[in-house]
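Notebook B, p. 112. Complex prediction, attempt 2.
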Amino acid sequence: MGTAIVVTSGKGGVGKTTSTANVGTALALLGKSVCLIDADIGLRNLDVVMGLENRIIYDIVDVAMGECRLEQALIKDKRFESLSVLPASQTKDKTALQPDRVRQIVTELKQSFDYVIIDCPAGIEHGFRVAVAGADQAIVVTTPETASVRDADRVIGLLETENLRSPKLVINRIRSKMVKSGDMLDIDEIVQVLAIDLLGAVPDDETVIKQNIKGEPTVMRPDSKAAIAYRNIARRILGDSVPLMVLDEQPGLWARVKRLILGKA
Amino acid sequence: MLSVNANTSGKPEGRPPVSVKGVNDGLLFLLDEECEHEVLTAYLRELLFENPSQLLSGPDVKVSVDYGNRNLTAQENLELLQLFLQKDNFCMREWSSNTVARRALFANRNRPERQNIHKGTIRAGQQVYYDGDVVVIGDVNPGGEIIATGDIYVFGRLRGIAHAGARGDTSAIIAAAEFAPLQLRIAGTVTRVPKVDGRVMNTFMEFAYLRDDGMAVDKMHYLFAIRGEKKAKRKRG
C-alpha cells in the first residue's frame, strides 16, 4: 500500500506543478514506483511539463465517469520505467470530479504504486477539496513573498480541517542575494510564521524554465541547484536526513582574489 | 434571566417607559427617568391591568420598584404607589431610587466574564470568537483574526488582527508575548500599527489599551498599574 501526497499552495504560479513533476521524478529515480495525478481539471499542464502531452488518450474525468479503465488512462513515462502520469481533462471543468470518486481512484492507485502525488489546482474551492480528498500527506509550496506565504497559511488551516494534520513545507524560488539584502523573506521567517516542518528549499534557477519548455523534469539535470534541491526533498520523503543545501552562490574567482588582497568580504 | 417586554400598546418609540426584569425571587420594575408623569402612569396602568399575560396576575410575587433619578412630587409618588398596591398579588418589598434588586442586577452584569483558552495557531482566513477573556496558546498569523468580548492575551506571536471588548468594553486590553499586529481594535476604536522600515513594528511583552486620546501600547509590567487606574476611574464615574 503506497502513500498519497497532495502538492498544494493556495496561490497560483508558485511552482506546484513543477514541484509535483520534479519530486515525483526524483522519487522514481530513487527506485520507487510513482504515479502523478493532475487534479487541475480544465487547466492541465502537468503532462506538458513532463513532455507527455502528445500521448494522452483518456484522462482522469474519463476514469471517473467510467468511460475507460484506470490503466488505460495512465501514461507510462518511457524515460523512467516506474513513473506514470494520470492526466487532467482540458475540456471539462473542475465540477466534473467529486471528492468521493477521486478518493476511490487514489486508493486504487495506491495498491500498485509506492507514491501517488497529486497536483492540486490553485485556489481553495471545489477543485482543492477534490484534490486533497484521497491524500494521506500534504506538501505546501510557497515562495518567499508575503502574498504566497499568506495563502500557504490559509491552506494549512484548511488542510487541518480536511484532517491532513502536519503538512510539509517547500519554499520555492529563493534568491539568496535578495534574501541577504533583506528584500525577500528568509527561510527562518517563513517557517516561523507557518509553523510547519520544512521539507526543502529550492533556489530560483533558470534551468527550471528551460527544462519546462523542453518537457523534461529539472531533476534530470543534476548539475543545476534546483535539481539537487528536489532530489534532496525526495530523499527526505523517503526518511533520509539530508542537511539543507547552502544556497549562497560561491564567489567567483575575481571576488576571491579581491578578498585575498583586500582582506575583507 | 427573564425579561418581559411590556410594550403591549404597540407604541413605536424605542424603549418603553417601564421595563420589568425578573430577579432572584420576584420582579423588578424599572421606571423611566425622563418621560412625563402622565405617560408613565398611563403605560403602567395598561401594563398592570390590561396585560393578558399570566405573569403579572398569577400567584403572589415579590415586587421591587426602582424609579432611579426621577424627581417625584409627593402627589406623583402616591399615584404610582397606589397603582402597584391595587394589584392584590403584589407583595411590595422595595420602593426607592436605588433598590437592592437593581444593584444586584447590575453587579451581576459586571461580574468577570468567562475565561477561555484557545489552543493552536490562528491562521490566515480563520476568525475565532470568544465570549469573555481569551488566552491564545499559539500564534495569530497575518490574516487571522481573534475576537473577544473581554481581554485578549496571546501566548505567542500576534501578527494578525485582534479585537478586544467586541461588545463595547473600552477597558479591554490586547496583550501578546510578541507584539506585531496588523491591526488592533478595542471596543469601537481601530488602529494600525506603525511600520518601521516598511515592516510591521515588532516588540515583545507589550499590551494595547484605550486612553482618552486613543489607543496606547505599553510594556506588560505597567499592565496592572494602568488597569488599577482605569478601575478606580470607572468607580468614581
